[in-house]
Design brief:
The longest helix has 13 residues, at 78-90. This protein has helices at residues 13-24, 44-53, 62-68, 78-90, 93-100, 131-140, 221-230, 235-239, and strands at 2-6, 30-33, 105-108, 111-114, 145-148, 154-159, 164-168, 173-176, 182-187, 200-206, 211-217. The chain starts with a strand and ends with a helix. By secondary structure, the protein is of the alpha/beta class. The chain is built from 8 helices and 11 strands. A 6-stranded mixed β-sheet has the order 3-4-5-9-6-7, with helices on one face. A 5-stranded mixed β-sheet has the order 2-1-10-11-8.
Length: 242
């Protein structure tokens, strides 16, 4: 089975549409979102609508957390707070209700899916976690593989029972994994990459051949930039896409 894992769409409908078009051509059996479907981008409601219409399971991201409780705004810097307040105003009641029902983590086909860090942290960044904490987490994790987002960067962290390895992913292609190891796989960002490459990113996990394929997908960035400014979101969110 092939599972497409998407994350951090951030209201970027143009990127999402191109990614889904690529997924539709890739013989994928399931699609799962790791959250932060909203925030920063100009089309949060349309993105949520697509997620709902295509029946894509999603977990809660830290941007969705703000929708459930405005007190979480305090975790964000002033520009992000302004953006999130605008984002909430752009959401329909149906989208808000959908967001409020999201869970912090999901297990599917024996694999764990969470926005930040296993088992179900929404806010923890993978790069914040010490080697000691990683080792402890792997030892307690029941699943062989956990997929995470949140950092907007691609990385594979492996554990063989003794040694932890960090493998950044800088280009598209296939990475074969070892069945005897455990992994945390950081899937990059569909809507706002921060790894020096402005293509939309997502991964396809092949459960039969035990490999991860990273997909780099171009989209119309200029159109998204124009929409960000048009709806009154901070210019920084537009500039960041280039």
């Amino acid at each position: 089975m092939k599972i497409a894992v998407i994350s951090d769409i951030h209201g970027n409908l143009e990127a999402l549409k191109e990614v889904l078009a690529d997924i539709d051509k890739s013989n994928v059996g399931a699609v799962i979102s790791l959250g932060d479907n909203i925030g920063y981008g100009p089309e949060p409601d349309k993105v949520v609508r697509v997620i709902r219409e295509r029946d894509i399971p999603s977990v809660m991201g830290n941007h969705e957390m703000v929708v459930t409780d405005r007190a979480h705004l305090e975790m964000f810097n002033p520009v992000a707070r302004k953006s999130l307040q605008k984002t909430i105003a752009l959401l329909s009641n149906d989208s808000i209700n959908f967001i409020c029902r999201l869970k912090f983590s999901k297990v599917f086909e024996g694999y764990r899916f969470v926005h930040g860090f296993p088992p179900e942290s929404v806010n923890t960044y993978l790069f914040q976690v010490s080697e000691e904490k990683l080792r402890e987490t792997f030892q307690q994790m029941k699943e062989k593989i956990c997929f995470v987002g949140h950092t907007h960067e691609l990385e594979i962290v492996g554990f063989d029972g003794e040694t932890i390895t960090h493998t950044p992913i800088h280009k598209k292609g296939i990475t074969f994994l070892h069945d005897e190891k455990q992994y945390i796989i950081n899937t990059g960002s569909v809507g706002q990459p921060r790894d020096g490459d402005n293509n939309a990113k997502y991964v396809i996990w092949d459960t039969s051949n035990y490999h991860v394929e990273v997909r780099f997908i171009p989209y119309n960035i200029g159109k998204v930039v124009s929409r960000i400014l048009e709806v009154g979101l901070p210019r920084a969110h537009a500039d960041r896409l280039w």
